[in-house]
Amino acid sequence: MYILRIETTDKKSRVALYSDEKILSDRFWVSKENLGNDLLPKIVILLRKNHIDLGDLDAISVDPGPGSFTGTRIGVATANALAWSLDLPVTDKLPMAKIAKHFTLPVKPRYPVSRWLVETS
């Protein structure tokens, strides 16, 4: 199962290719004012590097944000256009439970829970 991941919500954009619970390959680049022109060629390069055709994809995953409105819009529109033309499902999630088992570091909250509690009287 091949999943194409598109992340365009930040200045540093990324496309990645996942297969059976692991990352096969990914490409990062700093997207300035030409993200719309850069995204599809980066996807093509990623797929060619791994000898995979668009028709071999099983799903497309896209980062829905939060982040740059224009970057998010470009990523989601590209994901939807590719998925519609290839008759593929689009999701905003990856099978993270399966992918997370490859990491050895424990996941810890960034802030203590008490920081987010609000008391009312």
Write structural notes for this entry:
- With 121 residues, the protein is α/β, with parallel strands linked by helices.
- It has one domain (2-116): 2-Layer Sandwich (Nucleotidyltransferase, domain 5), CATH 3.30.420.40.
- It has helices spanning 35-49, 69-86, 96-100, and strands spanning 2-7, 12-19, 22-30, 59-62, 90-91.
- The protein has a five-stranded mixed β-sheet with strand order 3-2-1-4-5, with helices on one face.
- The longest helix has 18 residues, at 69-86.
- The protein starts with a strand and ends in a 21-residue tail after the last helix.
- The model is unreliable at 97-103 and 113-121 (pLDDT under 50).
Element order: H for helix, E for strand:
EEEHEHEH
Kindly provide the name of the CATH class.
Answer: Alpha Beta
Tell the overall outline: globular
Runs in which pLDDT lies below 50 for 5 or more consecutive residues are: 97-103, 113-121
Largest sheet: 5 strands, mixed
Distance between the amino and carboxyl termini: 53 Å
| Largest sheet, spatial ordering of strands | 3-2-1-4-5
**Roughly what is the average pLDDT, rounded to an integer?**
81
List the helices and strands and how they pair.
Elements: E1 2-7, E2 12-19, E3 22-30, H1 35-49, E4 59-62, H2 69-86, E5 90-91, H3 96-100
Parallel strand pairs: 1-4, 4-5
Antiparallel strand pairs: 1-2, 2-3
Helix pairs in contact: 1-2
